[in-house]
Write a structure and sequence with these properties.
The complex is a heterodimer of chains A (about 110) and B (about 170). Chain A has 2 domains: about 1-45, no CATH class; about 50-110, no CATH class. Helix content of chain A is about 85%, strand content about 0%. Chain A is built from 6 helices and 1 strand, in the order αβααααα. Chain A has helices spanning about 1-20, 25, 35-45, 50-80, 85-90, 90-110, and one strand spanning about 20. In chain A, helix 1 (about 1-20) runs antiparallel to helix 3 and helix 3 (about 35-45) runs antiparallel to helix 4. The longest helix of chain A is centred in the middle third of the chain and has 32 residues, at about 50-80. Chain B has a domain at about 55-170. Chain B has helices at about 10, 15-40, 40-45, 55-70, 75-110, 115-170, and one strand at about 5. Classes of the chains: A mainly alpha (about 110), B mainly alpha (about 170). Chains A and B meet through helix 1, strand 1, helix 2, helix 3 and helix 4 of A and strand 1, helix 1, helix 2, helix 3 and helix 4 of B. Strand 1 of chain A pairs antiparallel with strand 1 of chain B, so a sheet runs across the interface.
């Protein structure tokens, strides 16, 4: 169920991004809440609203990490002109460092 | 810059490219669910904003740009990298809107109905992304005008220095 719902929503946003011009505007749909839409509906049905709300709170950190990831990718491609696949793949480390860094910092502060 | 809808682009993508996106999207949704089940909603929620589909989409953009240039008998490697770079700028603006979307879900979901919260969060995502993109366009245009002014001033001052140095030499 999750695979089908996620696949459909992600594909729809990807197609919408394909159809739009200019490139920078089409890029907005690269960060559309596709996975979130598919997941949150199923989570609310199964675990309830409070659980889904907690997921959404963490998603804020994930989205900020996504912003930093996309920023690093754009700068490496536009300024350094490095190859696309290694840049987009290895820069995912930025997302992991930022999201889990904030997660562990929050854990430490929260005791 | 005007926003355009280009339906002919649907024909440019091959069927397996849609299948790849469907599989990637489905897999990350399933993985996000599994992580939430094992490690709880706090860790699982991080993965609702994981850039899983971005490398696949970027590779497809690169491939299409290269093919376009190849048809003209040119090497499109650098152009393709620039196209993906511009797409990533848009994605970074979209990610800010994604954070706003998450804030609305976090704050409103416990008190309101799911459809109402999802629809309002989606609308806010669209408006925030669009406004962010417009703001970026304005800032870019201003930056370009400023750079042009600076280069003109530099040109003028170099012309002004020319004769005075000649005079000093005399």
């Amino acid at each position: 169920m999750r695979v089908v719902a996620g696949g459909i929503v992600v594909s729809l946003f990807a197609i919408l991004g394909d159809l739009l011009k200019p490139k920078t505007f089409a890029g907005l749909f690269g960060a559309a809440p596709s996975v979130a839409l598919a997941t949150l509906v199923l989570t609310v049905m199964k675990e309830g609203k409070e659980y889904a709300s907690l997921e959404a709170r963490s998603m804020i950190v994930g989205a900020i990490a996504f912003f930093l990831y996309a920023l690093v990718v754009s700068q490496l491609l536009l300024r350094k002109k490095w190859p696309v696949l290694p840049v987009t793949t290895f820069s995912i480390a930025v997302w992991f460092i930022c999201s889990f860094g904030v997660y562990y910092a929050a854990m430490e502060l929260g005791g | 810059m005007k926003i355009k809808f280009n339906m002919s682009r649907l024909g440019e993508s091959r069927w397996y490219e849609y299948v790849v996106r469907f599989i990637f999207g489905g897999c990350i949704t399933a993985v996000a669910g599994l992580i939430a089940k094992h490690y709880g909603p706090v860790v699982g929620g991080l993965f609702l904003a994981f850039p899983a589909i971005f490398p696949a989409t970027a590779t497809l953009i690169e491939k299409h740009e290269k093919e376009k240039k190849k048809e003209q008998g040119k090497d499109g490697t650098i152009r393709a990298r620039m196209a993906v770079g511009l797409d990533a700028i848009g994605t970074s603006i979209g990610a800010i809107a994604l954070a706003v979307f998450a804030i609305i879900i976090w704050r409103e979901l416990p008190h309101s109905s799911l459809p109402a919260v999802l629809i309002s969060a989606m609308l806010v995502w669209m408006v925030t992304a669009w406004m962010g993109w417009m703001l970026w366009q304005v800032l870019r245009r201003r930056g370009r005008v400023l750079r042009q002014k600076q280069s003109k001033q530099a040109c003028r001052s170099s012309l002004h220095i020319g004769p005075s140095t000649d005079r000093r030499m005399q």
